[in-house]
Design brief:
alpha+beta, 5-stranded mixed sheet, 4 helices, 32% strand, flat
């Protein structure tokens, strides 16, 4: 009997969802999803490009493509590492690094940017086997350039570092692993 009532409730919810989707489009669902799963600063910036009508410009398209490419084709590095790059502000670039973490290991990442025109830098860490549309497991907050993540599973994580459009300069990415449990344990 409980299974039958659970199926009936699921059916009613599905029908209501189809009706709302048909009548109002996807916007109500997107608003609900944003409240349940908050956007990262990178996702918020991407949404602002779309809503501002800039997502189809050549520069924004290159920026979005660079973000995807960084997750799909990262450079493999051993942790700890320090990487430096000189980024041209007129050429959208995203840096992608594949780092192997063991379960229980903490990865701390610090990004520094030396530039004449300050701007935001988006720092995201993707889980093993991630695709570009996958939700990051960790992101630096708004106006932050550092993140820390305790690996819940062993595998190859992808770190993406990307400045906002028309921003560049000398970028240094420093990472350091550490065990998530400190010893001695009391």
């Amino acid at each position: 009997m409980r299974l039958r009532s659970a199926l009936a409730i699921a059916f009613v919810v599905a029908v209501a969802a189809v009706v709302v989707l048909t009548m109002f489009g996807r916007r109500p669902f997107q608003a609900i999803l944003q409240r349940i799963r908050p956007e990262t600063p990178h996702q918020r910036y991407t949404r602002s490009l779309v809503e501002g009508g800039l997502a189809h410009t050549a520069l924004a398209t290159e920026w979005l493509t660079a973000a995807t490419r960084a997750v799909q084709n990262p450079v493999t590095l051993n942790v700890p590492f320090t990487e430096e790059a000189l980024l041209d502000p007129v050429r959208p670039v995203s840096l992608g690094y594949a780092v192997t973490l063991k379960r229980g290991q903490t990865l701390s990442v610090q990004v520094t940017v030396e530039t004449d025109t300050p701007g935001r830098v988006f720092v995201d860490l993707f889980p093993p086997g991630a695709r570009p549309e996958t939700q990051p497991v960790a992101s630096a907050g708004v106006d932050e350039k550092a993140l820390s993540h305790d690996a819940r599973q062993s595998g190859v994580y992808v770190l993406r570092v990307q400045p906002e459009l028309l921003r560049g300069g000398h970028v240094r990415v420093t990472s350091a692993p550490a065990p998530s449990l400190r010893f001695p344990v009391s």
